[in-house]
Amino acid sequence: MTPRSVVTVRVPAKVNVQLAVGGRRADGFHELANVFFAVALGDLVTASPGSPGSGVMLTCAGPDADLVPLDDSNLAARAAHLLAAHHGVEADVRLHIAKEIPVAGGMAGGSADGAAALVACDALWELATPLPVLLALAAELGSDVPFALLGGVALGRGRGELLTPVPVDGTFHWVFAVADGGLSTPAVFHECDRLRDEAGTGSADSDVPAPEADPALLAALAGGDAVALAAALGNDLQAAALSLRPALAATLRAGAEAGALGVLVSGSGPTCAFLAKDAEAAEAVASALRASGTCRAAHATYGPVAGAEVLPQA
Ligand code: ATP
Asked: In this structure, are residues 137 and 82 in contact, taking their beta carbons and an 8 Å threshold?
């Protein structure tokens, strides 16, 4: 087989259909019960050979490209370095990110690019890294990176990185409303703690019950029941995201008024997610959101979809 000179990987964004946040642990992280759901809105990461000694050379295109760091802090670059170090090879590669996932939007876009770069470099450098090793490297990069490798729907425990696949029947239809400007995930967790302290419940892990996956939510996914899933959607970070960005309330309201079955902030926000009855209803919700003036863009999409995967060569 001739080595591939270019490898393109498609990687999904995620929405958390449940994000149950426990108290703050001694290490500063929060225990989570996090049901990740991979959607077809995603990025493409293309790897091609660099020249000897070039290191990782990054480019990015897309609506939010100017917000994406192009130095070694980019998760795609970090992934390339980590994989190269693991195998003792040089990390000489060109990586191009075609970015559709909103940046700092609560859809794990940076984590998705990290997962995609692991898979793309693995194929380009013909390393054939076993999946369990890729998952371990992914967990080193960040809590949301392993899920972007797996895709589908999965329950994440710990900081979100200990994954168990969740059975799902059929396809669910979603709309994502993209806000102007992002929210910092640590700032949203901090606000969640502040609101808990202010309410008198406390924010430490001894104050907050251990987070659990909701059996009604898991049953709705397994039964392919969009109405039941809509009723079970939950995000413990939503109040914090709304506190930091009160304008999101109008976005959520506009989607509900347009007929969405269920609405929630995606992860740490500020992207808002709307579950629709079918593809046609999703298009109608997306058009209504665009017309409402409460978001910068609205995308109708679906899921679950596979995790990071190499596209066939053109
Ligand atoms: P999560 O949902 O995992 O909390 P997010 O979707 O809110 O994350 P990201 O899009 O991953 O946020 O971006 C968070 C920050 O990470 C950005 O502001 C940017 O500085 C940095 N970053 C590093 N690599 C990338 C990348 N490949 N794409 C986008 N942002 C990146």
From this structure: yes
pLDDT over threshold 70, residue 200: yes
Which amino acid makes up residue 161? E
**Best of 185, 188, 248, 268 for a ligand 1 pocket test (most atoms within 8 Å of beta carbon):** 185
Asked if residue 1 has pLDDT above 90, the reply is no
Each residue of 258-293: pLDDT tens digit?
A: 999 999 999 999 999 999 999 999 999 999 999 999
Q: Is residue 2's pLDDT more than 60?
A: no
Ramachandran area for residue 265 (φ above 0: left; ψ -120 to 50: alpha; else beta) = beta
Structure tokens at 100: 């559709």
User: Among residues 51, 118, 30, which one has the least CA distance to residue 82?
Assistant: 118
197-206 CB burial, b ≥16 within 10 A, e <16: eeeeeebebe
Secondary structure of residue 223 in the 3-state scheme: helix
Residue with tokens 């209504």: 288
**Which residue minimizes the CA distance to atom 18 of ligand 1?**
104
Q: For residue 12, which of 313, 303, 311 has the smallest C-alpha distance?
A: 303
Could you tell me which residues are beta bridge partners of residue 173? 276, 302
Residue nearest to atom 15 of ligand 1 (CA): 104
Contact 4, 33 (CB under 8 A): no
